[in-house]
């Protein structure tokens, strides 16, 4: 204790003489959450090479202050320097390896082992394998952690907190910012942690700012700051604080300060003085009392400028950080094999269901047949035999039964032949002029239930096909005489009997890839931000651009597997034709996947909670699917909406994919390249937007 007192006295002399540089300096700092003013013109100085204990009741703004110091929260007024420069100053390794930050939230990846966690931060801080291994062994032993292969999710609350502390200590940072590191830690280990902090600051190179609810343990700090309602009531060596208030413990000194403060009202609370300059009325007026920590004035605030080269280097993403984040994502995926399989199989399941269920001809449709011809050789019987039996199920009935049945919804149509159908049809073929009655009697009469357009269209198509086949077979060279005078020649592109599946598949493949990618990424930042992981990575020196790129590259791996499986199914199993270049097909689908990832990243960076992120992802699903002309042609969309449709990411892309697959076109065709251009444009826009939002929000 005596030694402590001596240290404090030395500090006093140094600071008074202005010899002691500040590791952290906060001047007139204000920060609000909406209308709630949390930091209120706060001044604080953490001297270099010392432990600073920040004390205060719950909700007084300690965590907010630490977040402002590390730069994850922006201040609304005032000025902060950390190790000589403002946080996030270009070229300054704050955030970065100079700072070890242990946030109040545990902020650890649950799917990581202890070893994964420390390796992850080791990679980000650029430690060599040997350095990481040595530090890891020391920290596991020092913090009494279980086996390094233990999964974080299986650790107790106290053990997780210790791993979190280990991650902050890993790179031997110059400044340690610890938000309640000793909560839930047993007294023996608490004493050990404090002793370690005392040891590391002894050399004068390392500084520590620590918050704790155990006020008495802060007596081991060189300086304590007592905070209340966003202000610093007192700041100085613990012994001096106690002496000032004639208190035997720091806790009672603090209680007394709070009581005095409450009586005086917060307006007059002093700032930046040794010990509180006293909430007692006398001392509040005592201007002769010299502050130990020099209160800075606006003139003291230096102007910081960075060379453009340093600025440019600062924004260039570091491959080391991207690689560390990608390895992190891969490790987490490996630990969740069920989820990974689901991600790989979901698009295949979706495309299979789509090819099986959408666009095919209706099957087993009940149709009532009223045949008034009785002869076995009648043309009506022959014509009916050409009707496709898999699609149309014929039920022979009388006229009244057939109409009763269709009205009751039992049949989709009634086909009726008059009793003279054969002779009248023959007359129509052989005689140059026939009466209207002959034409009527030689026609097949059909009544349809048109409430289901697809079924009605199919019945019309099947009847025409049956008639064509019938006249071809029965009349041979004379068939042209009764043929409909419109002839559809061999198609230029596509096949004659093409079904709707062919139209819908390219757009569906793009939509499935896009929406799965949105789903994969929309929640990634939301959960990481909520658990404090995003902030922690940022303080470790990972930039927004690096985070965005790492997510993009990792998800690219997942969507590549998804796309390979999708193509195998559509091309080989469902035999969807591809007349064009497979490389172009794959490129366009991958780029659409990237659009989905980028859009997911925008949602993820802009939205804070899972529910809103899910709503945003789901909210765009149907409007985009419908307006993009994926399930129904764009040409059917009314004009004002069609313009909107054309700027959406999937409209031109779906058209381009259809042109490649069914027309065999290449990039020289405008309809193909504009699909690529629009997709690339959206990719760039979404990625930049996500990076900017992330940057603004950290
Ligand atoms: N994201 C936020 N949005 C709105 N208000 C917030 C937010 N974070 C904190 N606050 C409010 O700011 C005040 C200070 O919170 P802070 O977490 O800084 O307190 P603290 O001193 O660290 O408390 P504790 O010791 O319990 O951790 C509290 O009233 C809290 O409700």
UniProtKB/TrEMBL annotation:
<dbReference type="Pfam" id="PF00005">
    <property type="entry name" value="ABC_tran"/>
</dbReference>
<feature type="domain" description="ABC transporter">
    <location>
        <begin position="24"/>
        <end position="254"/>
    </location>
</feature>
<dbReference type="InterPro" id="IPR017871">
    <property type="entry name" value="ABC_transporter-like_CS"/>
</dbReference>
<dbReference type="GO" id="GO:0016887">
    <property type="term" value="F:ATP hydrolysis activity"/>
</dbReference>
<dbReference type="GO" id="GO:0140359">
    <property type="term" value="F:ABC-type transporter activity"/>
</dbReference>
<feature type="transmembrane region" description="Helical">
    <location>
        <begin position="548"/>
        <end position="574"/>
    </location>
</feature>
<feature type="transmembrane region" description="Helical">
    <location>
        <begin position="580"/>
        <end position="604"/>
    </location>
</feature>
<keyword id="KW-0812">Transmembrane</keyword>
<dbReference type="InterPro" id="IPR003439">
    <property type="entry name" value="ABC_transporter-like_ATP-bd"/>
</dbReference>
<keyword id="KW-0067">ATP-binding</keyword>
<feature type="domain" description="ABC transmembrane type-2">
    <location>
        <begin position="468"/>
        <end position="697"/>
    </location>
</feature>
<dbReference type="InterPro" id="IPR003593">
    <property type="entry name" value="AAA+_ATPase"/>
</dbReference>
<dbReference type="InterPro" id="IPR013525">
    <property type="entry name" value="ABC2_TM"/>
</dbReference>
<dbReference type="InterPro" id="IPR027417">
    <property type="entry name" value="P-loop_NTPase"/>
</dbReference>
<protein>
    <submittedName>
        <fullName>ABC transporter G family member 20-like</fullName>
    </submittedName>
</protein>
<keyword id="KW-1133">Transmembrane helix</keyword>
<feature type="compositionally biased region" description="Basic and acidic residues">
    <location>
        <begin position="283"/>
        <end position="296"/>
    </location>
</feature>
<keyword id="KW-0547">Nucleotide-binding</keyword>
<dbReference type="InterPro" id="IPR000412">
    <property type="entry name" value="ABC_2_transport"/>
</dbReference>
<feature type="compositionally biased region" description="Polar residues">
    <location>
        <begin position="265"/>
        <end position="281"/>
    </location>
</feature>
<feature type="transmembrane region" description="Helical">
    <location>
        <begin position="500"/>
        <end position="527"/>
    </location>
</feature>
<feature type="region of interest" description="Disordered">
    <location>
        <begin position="264"/>
        <end position="296"/>
    </location>
</feature>
<dbReference type="InterPro" id="IPR047817">
    <property type="entry name" value="ABC2_TM_bact-type"/>
</dbReference>
<dbReference type="Pfam" id="PF12698">
    <property type="entry name" value="ABC2_membrane_3"/>
</dbReference>
<dbReference type="GO" id="GO:0043190">
    <property type="term" value="C:ATP-binding cassette (ABC) transporter complex"/>
</dbReference>
<feature type="transmembrane region" description="Helical">
    <location>
        <begin position="671"/>
        <end position="694"/>
    </location>
</feature>
<keyword id="KW-0472">Membrane</keyword>
<dbReference type="GO" id="GO:0005524">
    <property type="term" value="F:ATP binding"/>
</dbReference>
């Amino acid at each position: 204790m005596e030694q402590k007192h001596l240290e404090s006295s030395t500090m006093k002399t140094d600071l008074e003489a202005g010899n002691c540089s500040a590791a952290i300096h906060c001047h007139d700092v204000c920060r609000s959450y909406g209308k709630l003013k949390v930091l209120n013109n706060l001044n604080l100085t953490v001297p270099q090479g010392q432990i600073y204990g920040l004390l205060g009741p719950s909700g007084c703004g300690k965590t907010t202050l630490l977040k402002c110091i590390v730069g994850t929260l922006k201040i609304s007024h005032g000025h902060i320097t950390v190790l000589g420069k403002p946080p996030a100053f270009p070229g300054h390794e704050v955030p970065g390896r100079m700072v070890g930050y242990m946030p109040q939230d545990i902020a650890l990846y649950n799917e990581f082992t202890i070893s994964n966690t420390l390796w992850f931060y080791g990679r980000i801080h650029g430690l060599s394998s040997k350095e990481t291994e040595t530090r890891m062994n020391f920290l596991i032993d020092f913090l009494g952690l279980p086996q390094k292969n233990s999964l974080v999710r299986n650790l107790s609350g106290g053990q997780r907190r210790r791993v979190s502390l280990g991650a902050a200590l890993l790179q031997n940072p110059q400044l340690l910012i610890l938000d309640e590191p000793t909560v839930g830690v047993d007294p023996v280990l608490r004493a050990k942690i404090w002793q370690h902090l005392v040891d590391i600051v002894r050399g004068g190179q390392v500084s520590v700012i620590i918050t704790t609810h155990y006020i008495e343990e802060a007596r081991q700090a060189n300086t304590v700051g007592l905070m209340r309602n966003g202000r610093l009531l007192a700041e100085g060596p613990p012994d001096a604080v106690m002496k000032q208030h004639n208190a035997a413990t720091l806790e009672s000194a603090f209680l007394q300060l709070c009581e005095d403060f409450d009586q005086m009202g917060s307006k007059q609370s002093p700032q930046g003085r040794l010990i509180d300059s006293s909430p007692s009325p006398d001392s509040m007026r005592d201007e002769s009392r010299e502050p130990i920590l020099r209160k800075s004035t606006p003139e003291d605030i230096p102007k910081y400028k960075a060379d453009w080269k340093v600025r440019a280097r600062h924004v260039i993403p570091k491959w080391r950080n991207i690689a560390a984040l990608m390895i992190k994502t891969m490790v987490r995926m490996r630990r969740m094999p069920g989820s990974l399989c689901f991600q790989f199989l979901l698009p295949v399941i979706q495309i299979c269901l789509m090819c099986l269920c959408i666009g095919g001809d209706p099957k087993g449709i009940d149709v009532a047949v009223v045949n008034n011809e009785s002869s076995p050789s009648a043309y009506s019987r022959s014509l009916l035999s050409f009707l496709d039996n898999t699609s149309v199920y014929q039920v022979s009935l009388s006229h009244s039964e057939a109409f009763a049945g269709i009205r009751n919804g039992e049949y989709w149509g009634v086909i009726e032949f008059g009793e003279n159908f054969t002779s009248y049809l023959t007359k129509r073929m052989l005689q140059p002029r026939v009466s209207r009655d002959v034409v009527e009697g030689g026609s097949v009469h059909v009544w349809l239930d048109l409430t289901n357009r697809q079924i009605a269209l199919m019945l019309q198509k099947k009847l025409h096909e049956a008639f064509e086949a019938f006249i071809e077979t029965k009349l041979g060279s004379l068939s042209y005489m009764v043929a409909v005078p419109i002839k559809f020649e061999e198609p230029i592109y596509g096949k004659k009997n093409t079904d709707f599946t062919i139209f819908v598949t390219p757009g569906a493949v793009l939509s499935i890839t896009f929406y799965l990618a949105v789903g994969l990424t929309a929640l990634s930042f939301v959960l990481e931000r909520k658990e404090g992981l995003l902030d922690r990575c940022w303080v470790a020196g990972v930039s927004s651009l690096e985070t965005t790129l790492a997510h993009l590259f990792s998800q690219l791996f997942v969507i590549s597997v998804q796309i390979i499986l999708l193509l195998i199914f559509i091309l080989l199993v469902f035999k969807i034709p591809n007349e064009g270049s497979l490389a172009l097909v794959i490129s366009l689908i991958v780029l659409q996947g990237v659009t989905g990832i980028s859009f997911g990243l925008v949602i993820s960076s802009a939205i804070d909670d899972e529910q809103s992120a899910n709503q945003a992802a789901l909210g765009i699903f149907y409007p985009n699917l419908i307006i993009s002309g994926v399930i129904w042609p764009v040409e059917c969309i009314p004009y004002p909406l069609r313009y909107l449709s054309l700027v959406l990411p999937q409209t031109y892309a779906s058209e381009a994919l259809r042109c490649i697959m069914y027309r065999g076109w290449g990039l020289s065709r405008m309809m193909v390249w504009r699909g690529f251009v629009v997709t690339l444009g959206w990719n760039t826009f979404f990625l930049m937007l996500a990076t900017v939002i992330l940057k603004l929000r950290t």
